[in-house]
Write a structure and sequence with these properties.
single chain, 67 residues, alpha+beta, 3-stranded antiparallel beta sheet, 3 helices, 25% helix, globular
Length: 67
């Protein structure tokens, strides 16, 4: 089950799953900062290469804005 971004911003806690579109992204070494939007808002997430592995990290790095 996915959690809306507005619910997270209102204080939903714990581990959540979100889905949406990449509205902006940047990286710094082994960390990517992804701004994700859904129909309810925007949130910034971080993706660490050491946590997700090289393959997934590279796949996400190649994604375009609005993917």
């Amino acid at each position: 089950m996915f959690t809306s971004i507005s619910a997270i911003l209102k204080g939903e806690t714990g581990k959540v799953k979100i889905r949406g579109w990449i509205s902006n992204k940047r990286s710094s070494g082994g960390i990517q900062f992804l701004e994700i939007r859904d129909g309810t808002g925007f949130i910034q997430t971080t993706l660490k290469k050491e946590k997700v592995g090289e393959k997934l990290f590279k796949e996400i790095d190649l994604m375009n804005i609005e993917s």
